[in-house]
Design a protein that fits this description.
By secondary structure, this protein is of the alpha/beta class. It folds into 2 domains: 99 residues, Udp-n-acetylmuramoylalanyl-d-glutamate--2,6- Diaminopimelate Ligase, Chain: A, domain 1; 123 residues, Udp-n-acetylmuramoylalanyl-d-glutamate--2,6- Diaminopimelate Ligase, Chain: A, domain 1, CATH 3.40.1390.30. Helix content is 32%, strand content 24%. The strands form 2 sheets. It has a 6-stranded mixed beta sheet, with helices on both faces. Strands 1-4-3-2-11 form a 5-stranded mixed beta sheet, sandwiched between helices. It comes from Catellatospora bangladeshensis. InterPro entries: DUF34/NIF3, DUF34/NIF3_sf. Belongs to the GTP cyclohydrolase I type 2/NIF3 family. Homohexamer.
């Protein structure tokens, strides 16, 4: 079979229907002619100059991204912003761009399933169900209980968190068994983790006041592993599924697009 942008879009939208996306989201085909052939694909979290350069270097003619390039409404794609320059580079080099964001978050399997699998969770279910067995986040259990300290070490080892590791709120000696996770920015799902009886909730972008209130009230422990690190695991099963469906070369980007690249301590030099 000869794959085109149109047939690839049809495949992706059968697995991640755009109607599943949140109303504010912008998913689907961004650049590319429907009849354009697809022979090599690059899967990325973020569409940035670095990942576009990687696509050009590897000869990819389609980029599948998790985060939208043009999330807010625009009236111009002039090459006066980095987004505009990217649009020009993609079109000028014949590279199509497709985005699967919150529709991939709620899919089963989806973004949070990849995160749960990497942490070894079993018997998972949606943290905030929608319908048709889908939903945001996942809650499951560890094969054997761990202390919070041990679980934090597991997360820091399994996830692409870089030298800064993970942030943890809670007693490191606390026993944890039931675990809730959400890829990306999951602060809003803290009440769902509480309702699910989670011992610990792992996500990214946790807020100070909500965290301190939860810890003070005796709720679940919290682990903030960062936005990028909790979504990057999805690219691996996505690529495996696409290879099985298409027989094409599907490349998982090795470009880290986490904007937080090093940490510094008061008595130490910055650590890259």
């Amino acid at each position: 079979m000869t794959w085109t942008v149109a047939s690839f879009t049809q495949l992706l939208e059968a697995e991640f229907p755009p109607r599943w996306a949140e109303p504010w989201d912008r998913v689907g085909l961004v650049t590319g002619r429907p009849e354009q052939p697809v022979t090599r694909v690059l899967a990325v979290v973020d569409v940035l100059p670095q990942t576009v350069a990687e696509a050009l270097d590897t000869g990819a003619d389609l980029i599948i991204a998790h985060h939208p390039l043009l999330l807010s409404g625009v009236s111009s794609v002039a090459a006066t912003t980095y987004q505009g320059r990217i649009v020009h580079d993609l079109i000028g080099n014949g590279v199509a761009l497709y985005v699967a964001h919150t529709n991939a978050d709620v899919a089963r399997p989806g973004v949070s399933d990849a995160l749960a699998d990497l942490l070894g969770l079993v018997e998972t279910r949606p943290l905030r169900p929608t319908d048709e067995g889908r939903g945001f986040g996942r809650v499951g259990r560890l094969p054997a209980p761990l202390t919070l300290g041990e679980f934090a070490h597991l997360a820091a080892t399994a996830l692409p968190v870089g030298s800064w590791g993970v942030r943890v709120a809670g007693d490191p000696a606390r026993t944890v068994s039931t675990v809730a996770v959400c890829g990306g920015s999951g602060d809003e799902f803290i009440p769902d983790a509480v309702a699910a009886g989670a011992d610990v909730y792992l996500t990214g972008d946790l807020k100070h006041h909500r965290t301190i209130d939860l810890v003070a009230s005796g709720g679940p422990a919290l682990v903030d592993a960062g936005h990028y690190a909790t979504e990057r695991p999805w690219l691996t099963p996505l690529a495996a599924w696409l290879r099985a469906q298409t027989g094409l070369e599907i490349i998982v980007s090795d470009t880290t697009t986490d904007p937080f690249r090093f940490h510094a301590c008061a008595t130490l030099d910055p650590v890259a």
